[in-house]
Amino acid sequence: MWSGLKAWRRNRILATAKLDGRAWRLALQRFPFTRALSAEERERLRELTIVFLHDKHFSAAHRLPLTDAMRLHVAVQACMLILNLGLEFYRGWSEIILYPAEFVPRHQYTDETGVVHQGDHAYAGEAWLHGPVILSWADIAQSEYPDGVNVVVHEFAHKLDMLNGNANGYPPLHRGMNREAWVEAFSAAYEDFCARVDQGEDTVIDPYASESPGEFFAVLSEAFFELPDVVEQEYQRVYAQLAQFYRQDPLARMERRTGGRVLSTER
């Protein structure tokens, strides 16, 4: 009965909501991972985006003008992560806040030693457990360049990680996935990546991934969608685990679109 009610509600939203066709086509062309979608995937993404925009509340801080185009910009990218998962993976929270530029969180947190800290570092994005996603518009407005840095994907990956608690790099896995295989793949890759960063290597993957296992998962999710060939080449087992988790294969998708050629960003 509950599944029937959810389907009825979804169909009602899709029947009554309006999404400008031109705006939607422009949004799809902005990102390499949406340009590579099949016609069937694009339609499913469109439906997910419509319901996402209906269910999530957007607000702006510091007098930032909030437009439908800005909402769509965020929603398309957020829904790419759950294209084959469903909107229930973004359950338990409803708010997205856009700041004009980087912001300094005002909340306090307690570190592992019990010391209470007041945030004093500027962020481009932040995801709260059971709370909002906060984004800097200046940092996400021009996020279509495939350099492996995508704040929207990063913060919404944290939201998926938080489905079973704090973001620690170990989200709830699907039935059939092997927890030991996940831990082994990510632990080995994280240790290797941290060593590379400590040695001063200029990595294609954002070095911020070395901050913690939670940040490693979020950054590797960014690269998984934007630079799938890099993730597959450098950390093949991590790529395989992410492909199972997101139920997507961005590398195969992009290779189909480019005839087998995927050009990576070089630094």
Which characteristics define this entry?
single chain; 267 residues; alpha/beta; Collagenase (Catalytic Domain); four-stranded mixed sheet; two-stranded antiparallel sheet; 12 helices; 51% helix; 8% strand; globular
Task: Report on this structure.
This protein has one domain: Collagenase (Catalytic Domain) (3-Layer(aba) Sandwich). 51% of the residues lie in helices and 8% in strands. A 4-stranded mixed beta sheet has the order 1-2-6-5. The chain has a two-stranded antiparallel ribbon with strand order 3-4. The chain has helices spanning 2-16, 21-30, 32-35, 39-55, 68-81, 137-140, 151-161, 179-198, 213-226, 228-234, 236-246, 250-258; strands at residues 57-60, 95-99, 108-110, 116-118, 125-127, 133-136. Helix 2 crosses helix 5 (68-81), helix 5 (68-81) packs across helix 7 and helix 10 (228-234) crosses helix 11. It is built from 12 helices and 6 strands. With 267 residues, it is α/β, with parallel strands linked by helices. The mean pLDDT is 90.
